[in-house]
Amino acid sequence: EQVLEPLFLLEQILELLLQLRQILEPLFLLEQNLDLLFQLVRILELLFQQVQILELLFQLVQILELLFQLVQILEPLFLLEQILELLLQLRQILEPLFLLEQNL
């Protein structure tokens, strides 16, 4: 009986360890799930940052479209300025001729 008693105690210890494992296993799975959740949150943060970058790029495209419209509006004014410069040059060329005609 003295030989069997340590074996009996060992069996009880093993049973308790098995029970402990059954108790702790869900906690271990919970920890793994929490790790996965943290990874998911990090991925979502990165996706949110990418969405913000895309929004900024979209706004940049809108700004570029407005600038293009502004260039289209201002282009005729630039042409008008060139026409005025050419008219001034023409005046400088024709003025002496006009004066010459008056003198004749």
Question: Which radius of gyration do the C-alpha atoms yield?
Answer: 44 Å
H/E topology pattern = H
The percentage of residues in β strands lies in under 5%
Which residue ranges are poorly predicted, with pLDDT under 50 across at least 5 consecutive positions? none
Helix percent reads: over 70%
Tally the helices.
1
Oligomer: single chain
Describe the structure.
This protein is mostly helical and 104 residues long. It has one helix spanning 4-103. Helix content is 96%, strand content 0%. The longest helix is centred in the middle third of the chain and has 100 residues, at 4-103.
Short summary:
It contains one helix and no strands. The chain has one helix at 4-103.
SSE topology:
Elements: H1 4-103
Question: Which key phrases capture this entry?
Answer:
104 residues; mainly alpha
